[in-house]
Every structure is written in C-alpha cells, then in structure tokens.
TrEMBL record:
MF annotations from Gene Ontology: ATP binding; CMP kinase activity; dCMP kinase activity
Catalytic activity: dCMP + ATP = dCDP + ADP; CMP + ATP = CDP + ADP
Chain residues that bind ATP: 7-15
Record protein name field: Cytidylate kinase
UniProt EC number: 2.7.4.25
EC primary class: transferase
Length: 219
C-alpha cells in the first residue's frame, strides 16, 4: 500500500503523514527531510550550492536513514542525528536550491523508491505522486492559504526557540514555493488523480478523519 502526500511548504503535510502512518501501521517517509539533510551536509562541507556535479556526488555518497519509525522519528545523516539541525532558517532558505538540481533528484528519487519497495508507506514531499510513487494507491495534495501556512511555520520555528520576523517567514515560504513549482524536474503540481484538500480551516484531527474516510479506514 502506498499513500503519496504532496503540497506546498507549511501545509502540515509531515504532521498529517506521521499521524496517518501511525494510524494505519505504515512506515512514514519524510522526503523533505532527505533534501534537508543533504543541504545540511553540503553547507557543512562548504560545497557551493550551485555546483550540480558536487551535489550529485554528495547525494550518492550520503546515507540518510530514519530511526524509530513508529514514534518520535529521528533523521540520521551518515550516522549523525540531524533532526533539529535540518529545520533551521538557513536550511529553510537553501534547500530548494539543492532540490532543484536534476542530478540530485535522480539519486534521491531512487533512494525513496527503494525505501518503499518492501513496506506499506505514507510518503510526503513535492513529486511523490508524479515521480516517486506514480502508482500510489492514494495521491493527496494538501494545501492551505499562504497566511495560514506562514502562521503554522512561525509557530513551529518559535517552538524550536528561533526568533522570527513574521513577514520574512511568509516571504521565505513564498520564495520556496515558487522555486518548487517552477523547476524543470520534480515540480510541485496537482495531478489528474490528486485528491486536493485545503486545510486552512481544518485542524489535524479533522484532516486525519477526512483522509481516513477517503482511504476507507473508518476510525
Ligand atoms: O517538506 P519540506 O518543507 O521539509 O521540504 C523541504 C524542501 O525540500 C522543499 O521546499 C523542496 O524544495 C524540497 N523537496 C523536494 N521534493 C520532495 C520533498 C522536498 O524538492 N519530494
């Protein structure tokens, strides 16, 4: 069983994907965390973020794993726990640059497909329904208005102890969405078989109920 969840930044994809996976007993794969971990490593290694070849080689040699899939999931990059580090404002501002590289995406998509080969998964990202799991049983497109997505991202950053300027967060989300939608490969888009849900007026419980109804697993 494969459930794909795509959508723009701050729409609440990872929260709902995690809850859905727990409810269904599937493995949750956060593909955004994989691009974030790669960006974190590139910055740490002083790799120029426009250097496609260097990023391609880095993507190939980097091992990204998720531990504790059913609980408080951790992101491990080459043995190092980067769960918190990959959520920083610097990574937020840089990740779309790395993710726009076709060479990088080729490597990452293959890794993601491998992860979904032998298990039932809920996978969230931008190109899951189109590129990673084109035969997914369900393809959700989760979105919300820009102010609502900015509000959620501000709350998330503040809870992590970051001082944030609300207008800048909104601008950063908008810039990331634009890059993610306009790139030539793996662009974010709705598909003919997408199930589009606007979560602006829904809380996570309501959204979970709606998705479970669609999947046919009544709570
Ligand atoms: O989902 P999240 O906001 O953590 O993703 C971070 C970034 O990683 C996105 O803005 C996008 O540039 C990239 N990404 C991607 N393809 C995916 C998942 C994430 O390009 N499947």
């Amino acid at each position: 069983m494969q459930i794909a969840i795509d959508g723009p930044a701050g729409a609440g994809k990872s929260t709902i994907a995690r809850m859905l996976a727990r409810e269904l007993g599937y493995v949750y794969i956060d593909t955004g965390a994989m691009y974030r971990a790669l960006t974190w490593k590139a910055i740490k290694n002083n790799i120029e973020l426009n250097n496609s070849q260097a990023l391609y080689e880095l993507a190939r040699e980097t091992k990204i794993q998720f531990t504790n899939p059913s609980g408080d999931q951790r992101v491990i990059c080459d043995g190092e726990d980067v769960t918190e580090a990959i959520r920083s404002p610097l990574i937020n501002a840089s990740v779309s640059l790395v993710a726009a590289k076709a060479e990088v995406r080729k490597v990452m998509v293959a890794k993601q497909q491998q992860m979904a080969k032998f298990e039932s998964v809920v996978m969230d990202g931008r190109d899951i329904g189109e590129q990673v799991l084109p035969d997914a049983d369900y393809k959700f497109f989760i979105t919300a208005s820009l102010p609502e997505r900015a509000r959620r991202r501000i709350a998330e950053l503040q809870s992590q102890g970051y001082e944030v300027k609300p207008a800048e967060v909104e601008k950063e989300i908008q810039a990331r969405d634009q890059m993610d939608c306009e790139r030539s490969v793996g662009a974010l888009k709705t598909l003919p078989d997408s199930i589009v849900i606007d979560t602006s007026l829904l809380n996570t419980e309501q959204l979970l109920g709606k998705m479970l109804d669609i999947i046919g697993e009544k709570k």
